[in-house]
Amino acid sequence: MAGIRQQAFSPGIEELDLRAQFSRTFRQSAARTLSVVSPRAAADWLERAFMTPQPYRTPLHEREWMMAAETERVSFNAQTMIPVYHWGRRSAHQPRVLLVHGLSGRGSQLGHFIAPLLQAGVHVVSFDAPAHGDADGKQAALPEVAQAVERVAAHVGPLAGCIAHSVGAASTTLALARGLECARVVLIAPPQEPSLYLSRLGGWLGFSSRVIERAQRNLEQRFRQRFDEVATPVLATRLSQPVLILHDRQDRVVPVTAGRALLAAWPEARMIETDGLGHSRILRDAHVVATAAEFLTGVGAAVQHEGVWQGDRAA
Prior knowledge:
Layout: H1 2-9, H2 13-37, H3 39-51, H4 60-67, E1 70-75, E2 81-87, E3 96-100, H5 114-119, E4 123-127, H6 142-156, E5 159-165, H7 167-177, E6 182-188, H8 194-205, H9 209-223, H10 232-236, E7 243-248, H11 256-265, E8 269-274, H12 286-297, E9 309-312
Parallel strand pairs: 3-4, 3-5, 5-6, 6-7, 7-8
Antiparallel strand pairs: 1-2, 2-4, 8-9
Helix pairs in contact: 2-3, 3-9, 6-7, 8-9
């Protein structure tokens, strides 16, 4: 009888799809109406949506990685503490590699890189950015993630390398342009410019182009920096670190053209394009993990396989 009740009151896939479709339609209708009735309120809504990470359940294997980590909390500002995670031996002479997650991510998201880095004798460090994972806060944007990268680097000491994904890659690039010292860098699916993603989000939610422009002005005033000033290809022209860009041709979140634009702008850049890994699965691919670890440490052999194209700035 309990099983019958559960079946009767549990929504099926079709019902869930209808609910999601109705929710999106209702949200878009509300956004379109608000765009006309109160553009200011609409822009505030979009600004909040742009800066609010979406929570995702942490998979079991990531929780196991975190159980093996040494955890401490570091001050981001007077109101916000962020957790910093350590794997491996901590000493002044041990090379350190920082893992930087993307929007709506968490410090464990790049956990597949931990083992090969530890095998190479590296002290691995990661963190939850403000408003992500177990960090304090409810909202964060690219400049604040860049500031978190800087705070963690200042806390743990000079970095031998960084591996950063998505918005984390853009934030790391911004931190490097502001003087962060890091010998070598791996950027995975690096975005090009925030305005592209604000426009996409605003259009998906149903806001008018005028509201999207207003939200961008609000964000630029909030952080005292124009969006085009933090575009990764613009920042890259000021950088000299060797960088390896890894980007999938089927990435539907950050198009591979963004990685190619960064490749063309960064003086010491190499790029590997994968095929069929998308935006997130690329972080779990054994060939990607091995190649990134070898690039940073020189230990092991970068693995090439069918479907991976490798080039340099001229490619």
